[in-house]
Amino acid sequence: MEHIAALAYSSGMTTRDPMLIEVWSDIACPFCYIGKRRLQGALARFPHRDEIRVEWRSFQLQPQLVTDASRRLNEFLATSKGLSLAQVEQMQAHVRAMGESEGIAFAMDRVVVANTFTAHRLLQWAQSLGRGDAMKDRLLRAYFTEGANVDDHASLQALAVDVGLDAAAAAALLASDAFADEVRRDIAEARQQRISGVPFFVFDQAYAVSGAQPPELFDQALAQAHAEWRAANALATPSAAS
């Protein structure tokens, strides 16, 4: 869908806090990785970046997937779709080319088949500590380029340490069920909003961009949503004379 959609569920509320961009995405999603890079590029080009806050929302493309560290993604796809490995690799050529354009070196033949629920719990925790963006990027890189098992506690703990989080606190988080409710909440909200595919970007609860769209579309959505957010806040803020 190569356009910006106005959202019917916009709250219409204004706030003086930074403008919010919510991103529903999965870790086991190459287009989510590409989309993250394109949003990141748009933000880097945007002159009012300091007025924007990005929140990573959880979504699972295959919630029932059973982790199997002995299997690689290409083998799994070939078996599940009845294709040869060569056919699977051919299917992925377009994704690799898109990734290269954003500086991502996809290594699909190394990707470990893994359920992402625990990784989403780690991401939610990191986000609560102000490290959500770094954690999301680290998880995507580990999954798609390093062949990491993102359902393995030791691997996830190491990734948390990589982005500056405490090793003992990460281990305790992973050993518990903490932040599971937050993950489920995001998934339930996506279902309520009829979000069936990711990445899905929501700008200030007013405009949506679905998929890893061209960079210029992110520039347009960001500029449009921010202009309206700023205008609404100007109206809501009392003047000095009053």
Automatic annotation (TrEMBL):
InterPro entries: DSBA-like_thioredoxin_dom (IPR001853), Thioredoxin-like_sf (IPR036249). Gene3D superfamilies: Glutaredoxin (3.40.30.10). Residues 21-223 form the DSBA-like thioredoxin domain. GO terms for molecular function: oxidoreductase activity. SUPFAM superfamilies: Thioredoxin-like (SSF52833). Transmembrane segments: none annotated. CDD domains: DsbA_FrnE. This is DsbA family oxidoreductase. The lineage of its organism: Bacteria, Pseudomonadati, Gemmatimonadota, Gemmatimonadia, Gemmatimonadales.
